[in-house]
Backbone:
C-alpha cells in the first residue's frame, strides 16, 4: 500500500455497500491536459450553479475582456459568471443545460486577438509559483469575498456556490476540511490530471479554504486507483501540514457523505449537511480555483474536462473555456467514431445524456463520455423480482426498489416512509438492477413531483 | 326419499326468508335519518366521482352544498342542468356561466418539433420533463400522455405526439390540467362552440423558437395589432378570455398569424 497509510485518520478508508464498476480510466489518464484553441464563439449560461440565477450585467454589442463579469446576482446563494474569452457580446438568448435547467445565456463572439493562448494560458491558470509563505496575510473574510467574486462553485459536478460552504457559522464550527480527489465516476480523469499537473495550486487553495472556514485539519482524500496522484500530492504537501490519504476504490467514494464516513468515521444525519458534523468537503479542482481566485484575483473561466469513452476518436483531457460547446471539444478530439451512440455530460453513473452538442460546457462539467451502441443497449424492463441487489449496494442504506415503485404509483406516503429525499441519486441501484427498472429516474421524478409538506 | 335437488332448494329458500326478515328488521332498527334535501342532492349528482368539483366524490360535494353552502355550479360533468337542479333543491339563485373546458397550449405535433432525440427512460411526462434534449422546446407537449392516464372520460388523446382534447366527451373536470408537468393545459370559459386559442406556451425569444419548432409563437405581435384582445408578454401571445364574447370573430388574426399557431378549439355545448 501507499505511504499514506501511515497517517492516522479515524475512518476505515471505506464505507458500507457501493459498487465496483469497470473504471475505464486508462483511456485518458495518461494524456496530459491539452489547451483547447479559442473557439469562434462561446455561450455563457447565466446560471451555472445551484441557487439564484444571475442577471445579465453586460449589454449586447459590448467588448469584453477575459474575466469581465457578464452576469451577477444579489442573492447570497449564487455566483457571478465571467467572460471566458475576449470578444463582443451579442443579444441574450436562452439555453437548456444537460441537467434540464432552461436558463438565459450571453453569447460572446471571440475577438481575433486573445491575450493568452496555448501554454501561456495554462501557466496563467495553473502554472507558476504557488508559494504558501505569505498565506497568513489573507484574512478569512477576504478569502470568502474573493471566492464569491471569482464565481467559484463546486467543480465536482454539484455546482454549489463555494463561498456559501466557506462562510463561517458560529453555531456549527468546522474542524476539518476534506479535499475530494476521489473522482469515483468511471472514465473521468480531469481531477486526476489536475493533481498530477498542478499539485501546488491545490495545496495552496486547500490552505486558503481551510483559513476561510476555520478548519484546523486539512485532509486530501484520493482513491487508491491513482497511486501516482497520491505520491505527487504527498510530495507537494510535504511540510505544509496537509495530510494526503488514499481511500479504497469504491463507487460512490466521491460522494461527500460516503467520503466523510471513510475518512472521518462521522455520519452526516439524514437531511443534514457535512457542516453538521464539522466537516467541509471541497473538490480538488475547486481548491485550485480558490488559490487562483485569492492569490491571483482571477475568476473561474476555464476548467479541465475529460473527453473520453469508446465513442471518441482520441480521448483527451482538455483545458477549455466555460461556454465552449461540447461540439468544439469533440472536434478537438478527432470527432466521434462510427460506433458512437450517446454523448454524456459528466460521468456515466450520474451524468446527463446530451440532446444537442451545441450546448455550452459550464463550471461543473467534469467530463464528456461518449458511449457506443453496444454499451447503451437496454433490455426491456421486467417486474421487480425482489432480489434485493439494489438494497445490497445502496451506500445510504435505503431500499431503492420500494421508493422507486412507490414513486411510480404516486404513493407518497410510502415513498416518504422509506426516505425518498435521502437518496443521493448515485445510480448504484439502477446499475445492478437485473430487471432494468429505471430506479434512479423514478426516484428523481418522484422527488420533483411529490407534494410538499 | 325426496330428491336432493329439491331439498337443497328448500333449504336455500328457508335461509333466504330468515335473512330477509333479519335484514328488514335491522333496516328499521338502525335507520339513519338522511335529510330529504341531502338525499335529493345526492340523487341529482351524476355519480361518476371524478373529483372535478374539488371534493372527493359526488357525495362529498352534495354534503358540502347541504351543510356548508358550497356553490351549486361546481359539477363539471352535470354542467348547467345539475347546477340548476341543485339551486332548485336548495332554493337559491343560479346564473349559468360559460362551461370551462381545457385547451392544450401547444400546437406542435412530432413533425413540427425540431431537435428531437430518442428517449428511452420511464415513459411518463413527469419523468421526461426532467430530462434535457428530448426535444428542442422546453415548454411544449412531451406527448407521453400523463393527461390521457388521468382522464376518466377518455376525452384526451395523444395524436402524433400532441395531446388533443375530444370535446364531445370532455366534461371539464380539470384532471388533465393538474397532471400536466409542463402546465400547458389551461381551463378556458367556452363562450362559443368554437373558441380561438393561441396554441403555444414558449416564452423564449423568437429566434430561439424558430430553432426548435416550425409552428411556435415568436411574439411578433401581428395578432395584437389586429385585435386588442391579444396581448404579448414574454414573447408569447395570449387571449384575454374575460373579454371574449360568443360573437367574437378573430378570423383575421388566425389568417395573418405567420406561424399559424392561432387555432380554433371546437366544442359541443353540454
Residues:
Amino acid at each position: 500500500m501507499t505511504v499514506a497509510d501511515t497517517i492516522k485518520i479515524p475512518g476505515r478508508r471505506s464505507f458500507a455497500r457501493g459498487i465496483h464498476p469497470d473504471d475505464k480510466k486508462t483511456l485518458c489518464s495518461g494524456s496530459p491536459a491539452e489547451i483547447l484553441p479559442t473557439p469562434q464563439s462561446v455561450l455563457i449560461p447565466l446560471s451555472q450553479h445551484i441557487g439564484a440565477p444571475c442577471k445579465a450585467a453586460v449589454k449586447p454589442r459590448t467588448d469584453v475582456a477575459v474575466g469581465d463579469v457578464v452576469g451577477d446576482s444579489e442573492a447570497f446563494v449564487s455566483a457571478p459568471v465571467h467572460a471566458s474569452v475576449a470578444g463582443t457580446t451579442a443579444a441574450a438568448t436562452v439555453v437548456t443545460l444537460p441537467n434540464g435547467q432552461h436558463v438565459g445565456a450571453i453569447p460572446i463572439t471571440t475577438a481575433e486577438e486573445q491575450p493568452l493562448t496555448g501554454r501561456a494560458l495554462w501557466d496563467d491558470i495553473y502554472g507558476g509559483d504557488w508559494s504558501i509563505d505569505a498565506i497568513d496575510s489573507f484574512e478569512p473574510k477576504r478569502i470568502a469575498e474573493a471566492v464569491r467574486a471569482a464565481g467559484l462553485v463546486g467543480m465536482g459536478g454539484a455546482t454549489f456556490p463555494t463561498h456559501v460552504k466557506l462562510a463561517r457559522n458560529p453555531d456549527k464550527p468546522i474542524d476539518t476540511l476534506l479535499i475530494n480527489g476521489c473522482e469515483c465516476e468511471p472514465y473521468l480523469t480531469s481531477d486526476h490530471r489536475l493533481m498530477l499537473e498542478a499539485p501546488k495550486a491545490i495545496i495552496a487553495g486547500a490552505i486558503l479554504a481551510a483559513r476561510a472556514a476555520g478548519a484546523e485539519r486539512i485532509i486530501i482524500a484520493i482513491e487508491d486507483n491513482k497511486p501516482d496522484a497520491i505520491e505527487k500530492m504527498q510530495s507537494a504537501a510535504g511540510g505544509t501540514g496537509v495530510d494526503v490519504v488514499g481511500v479504497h476504490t469504491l463507487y460512490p467514494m466521491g460522494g461527500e457523505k460516503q467520503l466523510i464516513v471513510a475518512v472521518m468515521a462521522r455520519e452526516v444525519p439524514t437531511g443534514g449537511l457535512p457542516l453538521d458534523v464539522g466537516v467541509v468537503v471541497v473538490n480538488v479542482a475547486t481548491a485550485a480555483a480558490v488559490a487562483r481566485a485569492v492569490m491571483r484575483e482571477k475568476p473561474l473561466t476555464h476548467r479541465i474536462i475529460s473527453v473520453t469513452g469508446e465513442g471518441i476518436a482520441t480521448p483527451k483531457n482538455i483545458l477549455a473555456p466555460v461556454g465552449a460547446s461540447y461540439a468544439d471539444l469533440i472536434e478537438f478530439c478527432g470527432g466521434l467514431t462510427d460506433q458512437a451512440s450517446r454523448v454524456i455530460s459528466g460521468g456515466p453513473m450520474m451524468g446527463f445524456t446530451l440532446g444537442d452538442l451545441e450546448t455550452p460546457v459550464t463550471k461543473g462539467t467534469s467530463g464528456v463520455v461518449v458511449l457506443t451502441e453496444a454499451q447503451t443497449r437496454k433490455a426491456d424492463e421486467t417486474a421487480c423480482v425482489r432480489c434485493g441487489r439494489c438494497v445490497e449496494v445502496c451506500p445510504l442504506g435505503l431500499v431503492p426498489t420500494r421508493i422507486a415503485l412507490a414513486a411510480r404509483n404516486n404513493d407518497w406516503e410510502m415513498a416518504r416512509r422509506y426516505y425518498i429525499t435521502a437518496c443521493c441519486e448515485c445510480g448504484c441501484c439502477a446499475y445492478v438492477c437485473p430487471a432494468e427498472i429505471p430506479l434512479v429516474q423514478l426516484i428523481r421524478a418522484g422527488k420533483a413531483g411529490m407534494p410538499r409538506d | 326419499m325426496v330428491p336432493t335437488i329439491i331439498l337443497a332448494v328448500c333449504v336455500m329458500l328457508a335461509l333466504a326468508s330468515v335473512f330477509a326478515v333479519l335484514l328488514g328488521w335491522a333496516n328499521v332498527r338502525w335507520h339513519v335519518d338522511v335529510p330529504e334535501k341531502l338525499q335529493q342532492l345526492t340523487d341529482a349528482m351524476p355519480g361518476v366521482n371524478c373529483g372535478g368539483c374539488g371534493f372527493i366524490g359526488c357525495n362529498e360535494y352534495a354534503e358540502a352544498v347541504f351543510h356548508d353552502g358550497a356553490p351549486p355550479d361546481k359539477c363539471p360533468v352535470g354542467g348547467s342542468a345539475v347546477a340548476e337542479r341543485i339551486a332548485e333543491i336548495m332554493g337559491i339563485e343560479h346564473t349559468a356561466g360559460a362551461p370551462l373546458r381545457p385547451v392544450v397550449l401547444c400546437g406542435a405535433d412530432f413533425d413540427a418539433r425540431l431537435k428531437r432525440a430518442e428517449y428511452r427512460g420511464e415513459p411518463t411526462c413527469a419523468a421526461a420533463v426532467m430530462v434535457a434534449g428530448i426535444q428542442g422546446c422546453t415548454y411544449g407537449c412531451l406527448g407521453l400522455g400523463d393527461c390521457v392516464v388521468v382522464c376518466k372520460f377518455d376525452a384526451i388523446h395523444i395524436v402524433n405526439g400532441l395531446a388533443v382534447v375530444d370535446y364531445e366527451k370532455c366534461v371539464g373536470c380539470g384532471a388533465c390540467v393538474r397532471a400536466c408537468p409542463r402546465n400547458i393545459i389551461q381551463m378556458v370559459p367556452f363562450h362559443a362552440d368554437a373558441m380561438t386559442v393561441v396554441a403555444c406556451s414558449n416564452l423564449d425569444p423568437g429566434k430561439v423558437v424558430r430553432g426548435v419548432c416550425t409552428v411556435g409563437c415568436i411574439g411578433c405581435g401581428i395578432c395584437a395589432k389586429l385585435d386588442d384582445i391579444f396581448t404579448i408578454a414574454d414573447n408569447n401571445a395570449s387571449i384575454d378570455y374575460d373579454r371574449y364574447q360568443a360573437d367574437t370573430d378573430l378570423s383575421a388574426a388566425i389568417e395573418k398569424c405567420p406561424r399559424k399557431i392561432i387555432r380554433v378549439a371546437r366544442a359541443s355545448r353540454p
Q: What stands out?
A: The first strand of chain A starts at residue 34 and ends at 35. Chain A has 15 helices and 18 strands. The mean pLDDT of chain A is 91.
